[in-house]
């Protein structure tokens, strides 16, 4: 618990304000929002460091080293003030000077050190671990450029510019020169004994640590430690092996560039040498740092798994496994068996995807050149595995089992395989996904390593996604819930008794309506569109990916538009479709979909017949702070991925907790959301995992849907014939061609069922009382999707001693 009282915090704020103003020869009334922001950030940071305990004691749990290439933490100041329980006091304080805290907090630039769900999940987990006093440290990279900023040009295309977040990031990051590390690359290896080798790297890069304090809600403060690459000289390529892989990319290999940029891909691997170097650099710095701390406490290497666990956030930090082995073998001279006994009890791996293009594989030649010693270790792990597979599977089964389980296959190093073999626990991120990990991805491993596979359904922090994002709802909950729901989200179930209480209903409805008004203002400011606040706010916010099927949403919008044009008198519930999300700069099809949405939005929003009826708002530059504005205002949450493709989703949880009705397929965590909320409080449509399988087996022919469904045909034709591209019939031809001739994500097969589901939404919305009741029940019943629950699941299923 924080050891500072609100009164003493505010006294120190007052003193510091005097000093701050004196130094600048300025009166408090003249301070700009930016200056207020800098000033409050400074006060909160020093209070956090002085008064919040660090390093909570290890009680029945190990310390968690959360290794992730991405941490999408979002703005920190508001969250920190809340955790210190001084938000309201500071709000009152700045009001005395005619300022509004909400405006001041808007000055903070989001640190966008992640792409999407995986990075945001890491941030929610850090928050929960600090709030639950689970000893933990986050290890990531200190990218100079976070995820790009997104803009749209006149014709609706996505443009990208750099986000040098650090330049105007006022919150302090603590440079820790004492934690510096040296990381080697390339070079030669010489065998010393059976198990020990001497690796002489061709060059080294220095890793510098920057700490960002993560403050738990009324909890402890723990570091997010981010590594930055530093070298006084650039790589000497001549000294380095002149292998074909690196030569081809020599122009990008420069030490100073190592941690310059976050690779902007979500659920897609980019097989660049620089990315592999980033991954190893991240692992090497983090493993060295954790061993330093472990040994400094007088503990032995054999005790490592008793005190520390390394949670691998997907396979991006997989090289931590051979790196720990290397240190144990070559630096501490343990035998292979001893080293493996330690390492294989230290790592746990979370799988976040089944998509083949996201399952990382590296060319073995590249790994051998960059990391020759690690390659030898991986080869040995693979050999030992081979013996196990031979023992478990009979001759008939063997070939298939080895194809599936081998780490090295077809000149590739398969990182997911390395993780499964090298970890004591593997988990998926939602029930259905964890089942598919076992049944479709790793059935032979499940047989070989019984008890290794688990499920931990993702969760989201209620501090940011309810208390901070939706203050009016938070106040309502404070007033009606007995106990602190912020720390125990299961308490939301008390609302079940209130859903039929007319006062509560009205209050809940008014909150949604006022949040819609707030978002309407944001939309007008951002894109100049005046929206109808009585329309259904229908929201799809997430990365752009074909499997997420924003184009399914778009086809329904086009069909609806064409229908309204043909039947102007039709009884229609007004609808505002809201989109936000970025596409990876190199992902052509996703960018086409973005451009098509912008094209359709332009036509619909400028059509006088549609005013107040049908509108489309595409908000640029989706990021955490924008999500915080959209989510509380949503009526409908679009979760329409093809079944089996979205591992979990977490936006689905945030939206449902804030009272949006899920319109979704039976995919990822939607399945559990539907179970907890009750089938009558969600709208489910489309093919299931099983029926998609059958569809493919029969031979899926998308064009037959086009031919049979007139509305679908008209919608696709409208895209093709230039209606939404100023007459340009080529602009969307790749998208149209893809839908008609391959449509791997079965958009056309789900169109009719999606359209029906959309009509059901409209019907349900007409009965406002019933709609709100469903929304309230979503809030009441989804407390289980708190990331605190996920962390408790990790504690009991995986991190237990
Ligand atoms: N792209 C999944 O696709 C999931 C998050 C967090 C993802 C989401 O469905 O909610 O992880 N997978 O578990 C991923 O990044 C590498 O795989 C994601 O964010």
Features:
Rossmann fold; 801 residues; binds ligand CRA; globular; six-stranded parallel sheet; alpha/beta; glycosyltransferase; nine-stranded mixed sheet; Alpha-1,4 glucan phosphorylase; single chain
Task: Give a structural overview.
- The two termini are 25 Å apart.
- This protein folds into 2 domains: 402 residues, Rossmann fold (3-Layer(aba) Sandwich); 271 residues, 3-Layer(aba) Sandwich (Rossmann fold).
- The strands form 5 sheets. The protein has a 9-stranded mixed sheet with strand order 5-8-9-2-1-10-11-15-16. A 6-stranded parallel sheet has the order 19-18-17-20-21-22, with helices on both faces. A 3-stranded antiparallel sheet has the order 12-14-13.
- The protein is built from 32 helices and 22 strands.
- The structure holds ligand CRA.
- Its cofactor is pyridoxal 5'-phosphate.
- GO terms for molecular function: glycogen phosphorylase activity; pyridoxal phosphate binding.
- Belongs to the glycogen phosphorylase family.
Report the CATH architecture of the largest domain: 3-Layer(aba) Sandwich
Going by CATH, what is the homologous superfamily of the largest domain?
Glycogen Phosphorylase B
Radius of gyration: 27 Å
SS elements, strand count: 22
Mean pLDDT: 95
**Count of helical regions:** 32
Based on secondary structure, the structural category is: alpha/beta
- Tell me the helix content: 40-55%
User: First CA to last CA: what distance?
Assistant: 25 Å
What about the largest sheet? 9 strands, mixed
The best one-word shape is globular
Q: How much beta, percentage-wise?
A: 5-15%
What is the count of distinct domains?
2
CATH class of the largest domain: Alpha Beta
Side by side, the strands of the main sheet go 5-8-9-2-1-10-11-15-16
Cofactor: pyridoxal 5'-phosphate
GO molecular function: glycogen phosphorylase activity; pyridoxal phosphate binding
Catalytic activity: [(1->4)-alpha-D-glucosyl](n) + phosphate = [(1->4)-alpha-D-glucosyl](n-1) + alpha-D-glucose 1-phosphate
Family: Belongs to the glycogen phosphorylase family.
